[in-house]
Amino acid sequence: MYIIAGLGNPGKEYEGTRHNVGFMVIDALSKKLGIEVSRLKFKSLMGEGHFKGEKVILLKPQTFMNLSGEALYDAVDFYKIPLENVIVVYDDKDLEVGKIRIRRKGSSGGHNGMNSIIYLLNSEDFPRVRIGIGKPEDGDLVRHVLGRFSEEEKKVIDEAVERAAEAVIDIMENGIEHAMSRFNG
């Protein structure tokens, strides 16, 4: 069984923002896996289905980014799932726009959603797929992460979202080492 959580902020005003690339990947996975993400459970929009005989839960936490751990903790606790089968997808300002980085575990890197998850799960030992959103040119991080991509960036991000969805599928199908060697560039 796998739980895949894409981080973002709920609400129309945040759709398409840099901070919501995790939600975008869940939407892509929803299409690829045929899992509708529409039920409210675990403080999230949730969908469940199967992939190659494994149960898969897709989550889009509705707690706002800084409290993402509340939603993920509730799901992990309910299903009693090992953390190596929890995959978190989120934006990373320290990667150039569209770059993907998969890791088996690690710190939050200053990402508030990840701080919340690590704190509530009491562990850094779970896979993550980060998607680069680049650094703010003017140094205003809040405006940057809550801002939208330029037309040029949007094309790169759309491709990155598809690649990140493929990376999550590869993790489930072939393991994290395989996905890291295939998608980390």
Automatic annotation (TrEMBL):
InterPro entries: Pept_tRNA_hydro, Pept_tRNA_hydro_CS, Pept_tRNA_hydro_sf. The keyword Cytoplasm applies. Belongs to the PTH family. The record marks 91 as: Stabilizes the basic form of H active site to accept a proton. It comes from Caldanaerobacter subterraneus. One of its GO terms (molecular function) is tRNA binding. One of its GO terms (cellular component) is cytoplasm. GO terms for biological process: protein quality control for misfolded or incompletely synthesized proteins; rescue of stalled ribosome. TRNA binds at residues 14, 64, 66, 112. Pfam families: Pept_tRNA_hydro. It is found in: Cytoplasm. Its EC number is 3.1.1.29. Catalyzes the release of premature peptidyl moieties from peptidyl-tRNA molecules trapped in stalled 50S ribosomal subunits, and thus maintains levels of free tRNAs and 50S ribosomes. Hydrolyzes ribosome-free peptidyl-tRNAs (with 1 or more amino acids incorporated), which drop off the ribosome during protein synthesis, or as a result of ribosome stalling. It catalyses: an N-acyl-L-alpha-aminoacyl-tRNA + H2O = an N-acyl-L-amino acid + a tRNA + H(+). NCBIfam families: pth. Keywords: Cytoplasm, Hydrolase, RNA-binding, tRNA-binding. This is Peptidyl-tRNA hydrolase. The active site is at residue 19. Monomer. Its main location: cytoplasm. The keyword Signal does not apply. The record marks 9 as: Discriminates between blocked and unblocked aminoacyl-tRNA.
